[in-house]
Amino acid sequence: MTTTIRRSLARAFTLAVALVFATTLFSVSTPPARALTLAEVSTPFQGVSRTTTTARTSTTASTAPSFGSRVVSTAATRRGMPYVYGAAGPTRFDCSGLTLWTFKKLGRRLPHSSSAQYGRTQHVRAKYRKVGDLVFFHDGGGIYHVGIYAGRNTIWHAPYPGARVRKERIWTSAVWYGRVR
Questions:
Q1: Are residues 110 and 161 in the same domain?
Q2: Claim to verify: residue 75 and residue 139 sit in the same structural domain
Q3: Phi-psi region of 83 (alpha: psi -120 to 50; beta: other; left: phi over 0)
Q4: 1, 18, 104, 135: least buried by Cβ within 10 Å?
């Protein structure tokens, strides 16, 4: 079999898998014995209340993403950006610069220093940490690094010179948690 034929078959297979996935993902199943009513067809998101503002439609608090998840999503958009000491975005970051930039995008102000950020947060115990909280790494005497808690013992952070913004497991128990008010 020639390389061209193999590539064509691989592309066709990939397209078929994507089509099956999309069909499965976006299909709406209904009970076979009952037809949809006109009201059900015109309001496909039953149970989700919506409020309309002048310029856009927004969901109520029960369906809106939490502030913490918005923090994590915003930080994740910087994935792969290089670490540069003293940088605070939008394309280069140090650890406190990433947290500063992320919270600034969401309307909160933080200083550009991990220890100063610790002083501006509400300190929380590890068992009460939430997605979007700041994770401060300390060596007993002072804070030397900060990241954004992403759940499951992971953080988004700008690790060190030569590295890039990434999600990584928390590597030590010498951490404190702070919630941005």
A1: yes
A2: yes
A3: beta
A4: 1
Residue 132: closest CA among 177, 81, 101, 91: 177
- Is there a single domain that holds both residue 8 and residue 88? no
Query: Could you give the angle at which helices 95-105 and 67-76 cross, rounded to 10 degrees?
Result: 120
Does the pTM of the predicted model rise above 0.70?
Answer: no
In terms of Cα–Cα distance, which of 181, 180, 129 is closest to 155?
129
Could you report the per-residue pLDDT of 93-137, keeping only the tens digit for each? 999 999 999 999 999 999 999 999 999 999 999 999 999 999 999
Which pLDDT score is estimated for 21? Answer: 45
Tell me which residues are annotated as active site. 95, 145, 157
Whether the ω angle into residue 111 lies within 30 degrees of 0, i.e. cis, is no
Tally of residues, the chain = 181
**Same-domain check for residues 83 and 102:** yes
Same-domain pairing of 14 and 75: no
Q: Do 76 and 149 fall into the same domain?
A: yes
**Taking a C-beta distance cutoff of 8 angstroms, is the pair 101, 91 a contact?**
no
The count of structural domains within the chain is 2
Contacts of 107 (CB under 8 A, 6+ apart): none
Residue 79: give the domain boundaries: 67-180
Answer yes or no: are the C-beta atoms of 150 and 178 closer than 8 Å: no
